[in-house]
Amino acid sequence: MDKKLIVVLGGGESGVGSAILAQKKGFRVFLSDSGVLNDTHRETLQAYRIAFEEKQHTGEYILTADEIVKSPGIPDTAYIMQKVLAKGIPVVSEIEFAGRYTDAKMICITGSNGKTTTTSLIYHILRSAGLNVGLGGNIGKSFARQVAEESYDYYVLELSSFQLEGVYDFKADIAVLLNITPDHLDRYDHNLQHYVEAKMRIIRNQRTEDAFIYWIDDPLVTKEIEKLKPAATTYPFGEKKNGHMAAYTENGKLYIQTKENIFDMELELLALEGMHNVYNSMASGIVAKLMDVSDEQLRTSLSDFKGVPHRLEKVATVRGVQYINDSKATNVNSCWYALQSMRTKTVLILGGTDKGNDYTEIEELVRSKVRALVFLGKDNSKLHAFFDGKVDEIRDAGSMTEAVEAAYQLAQKGDTVLLSPCCASFDLFKNYEDRGDQFKECVRRL
Fold first, then answer.
1. Which domains does the chain have, with CATH numbers?
2. What are the residue boundaries of the Mur ligase C-terminal domain, all occurrences included (predicted)?
């Protein structure tokens, strides 16, 4: 019998990892990308002798696949996907595909905001506690490639709604849902419920012995939980103690209550600042206690964690003005969190590719905290339409150098300059990392 053909669509980190795993499991493999592969990925595929194409999708061959592993970035509306779906070829995500080939315990994190920070913090806690743990999903190395080449007992996976769409039999042993706010609605026909349903796939296939950790103060999440009645054991967390809670705050302390244990820690000892990070620390702490990390070890890890690049990252203080890189804030809600944690007057750099944003969410914070706005993008008309007249000083910038220069002129001693763009970066930058790196570079040149 002929070996099954697995076609991988998309030649990024997850696609290349999936191709390597498929080859290792004895399938015939073909990888196809409509864009240009980066040099590292191309060299990797060549080294593994995996057949691939770039700058095109050869439909005739792709449509002979027995199964397709699709990159999360490719929407079902793409021309090749329409053909694939019409032919009824099974399509899965890298997460679903790789999950078949490992018995490791899965700790999975999703949410509109805070998932990278929380995933990184959980990984930091577990690794510091000496567990044999891998980090993957929407962050770090490809999960599929790690399954092919490493041997971990646990995986901490950050999962986006796009990745969760392609999950069917995969199961999280511990699922964490931080929050749900409107994001990527362009992908979900501007229907919030479709996005909510994609996120809730994180609890798919969970059983009583599995854990589901969630923020109880999120109305969208709680409404959905009442409707779905998850089979997993639930561990809600929130700001105030209210009934049976796994984590809450009281009198300046964070409390975590699981099994017979009550863990407590002074809030000001947490490495991460801002209330949203208290929630991220709560979710991470619940995971740690479910995995029997000692109180002492957990306290140490929650207080010495270094944070995530491009997420409220302190860059430098120049002439009494602090510069903060929050380039990872690609939606309005992320920017809201950033502004909320500001303790000084702020010069805010906004703009980029708008994903159907509604800026009313940050309007009040902008009016109360923002001294000046700098719009950084190819087309700032939507930003002007909303903010003109609400802030005294507004400038436009067509490059990061111009934006930082304008912010430098507008900021006063004791202020903060915050890059928290609310938008995707693709109009002027390769990605949000490139945007953040350029910001840091420009600040260091001041």
1. 5-92 (3.40.50.720), 96-304 (3.40.1190.10), 313-445 (3.90.190.20)
2. 310-422
